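thread: overnight batch results

M.L. [08:02]
morning all. the overnight job finished for the chain we discussed friday. pasting input first so we're all looking at the same thing
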Amino acid sequence: MSKPAESNATILDVARRAGVSRTTVSRVLNEPDRVSKDTLQRVQDAATALNYSPNSFARSLRSGRTGVIALLVGDISQPFHGSLAQAVVEAAEERGFGVMLYDLGHSTARLEDVLRKLPRQGVDGMIIATADDVSTSSISDAVRECIAQGIAIVTGVEQFEVDGITSVRTDHREGARLAMEALASEGLTRPAILLGDRNGPIGKQLVAGAQGATVHEVGYTFDDAAAAVKILANDHDSLIVATLPMALGAMSALTRAGRSLPVVVCEEVPFAAQVTPAFSTSAVPPDETGREMVRLVDAVINSIPLEPRALHASLTRRESF
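M.L. [08:03]
and the structure it wrote out:
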């Protein structure tokens, strides 16, 4: 008797048919004791209907692959991270991956806790996307443990001195430099640059690219930036701002004080063009970054030779400058 043909169904197909998440299917594959009997039965029935069992289940168990990646973002309330998460999910689904989202809330303790848990969560890879300085020894140790457990790791910017990590190649200095050059072309030579964390991996690059600008580390929020602008020296003739919420806070404070300064934001998100005034930006769009992150993590998971690809910032002029 010939063997039945193996199905091309994926773990996502099983999840959709069973009406559960890919993470739940992953748990059925790896930790069936962690799901209810009803959920276990639904997933098994869906897998059988799609001819995903037993061969595909067995292959997944043998390889240790679940088709799930984790996305760790610095602060999901930030427009950039929301847009980035959407781009990562779309690109991941195109490649047959599901995504588990973790919001770090700018907390190194939270990041370390997530890293310690992930090897038990059945993920094939993870993407760490944060502008915070998280390069502590304990976090680096947790990252090494994840790599030792076979988890592929991609970061949005180089921030760990740990072998086995792949980083997206974005030179954030370029965005700040383009902003400085555009301002200078209009005779604006005394800018201030507002940063959330000047010691973070992106903050350091923005400072390096904004040579000649006065650096102010003010925090990431609307209120942080607004408070900083209230006491900003009057001799500044323009602003370069790290994030859109900070730019909104800065613009609000300027308006209340009866001041008007050109503003350029070092991140490009759709919302930047939808507010009044629309903000000029100098950055790489999050959808481009998200797709590159998924391309890299897919390559590492599947041992595909990596082709270096640099992402370049571009300046978009709108109403704020």
